[in-house]
Amino acid sequence: MKEPIWLTRSMIEAIHIDQIKEHGGQFGIRDENLLEATLARPLHRWNYEPKSDLPILAAAYGFALAKNHSFVDGNKRVAFMAMYTFLGLNGYENVAPEPEIVNIMLGVASGSISEEELANWLHKHTIPWSTST
Q: Under CATH, to which class is 29-128 assigned?
């Protein structure tokens, strides 16, 4: 697999702003260091775990964002949209139904869903972008 297109800090912050504008909540970063650690997590997997594929890397973003609470508000929403955006930048999309998305992200945030389980869920619900119209 070629190196993926990574999410940048400005992309994650833009996702946060969009989610707060659309769904409400308080703007702002709660912990700068945790946000930086979140951005480093998938890169670390890419460099040190050679079997990491796009759903595994997306799960690294989503799990860290949901668990680290880098933002004042909207962490679960940002976590899912970061995974969705990362997959999209790399030619894939998540096709899970919205109620399932809500349940999986609540599970991640509460600790009942592990990063590995999130990656497995993404494997089941991720497909290449359709090239036919």
A: mainly alpha
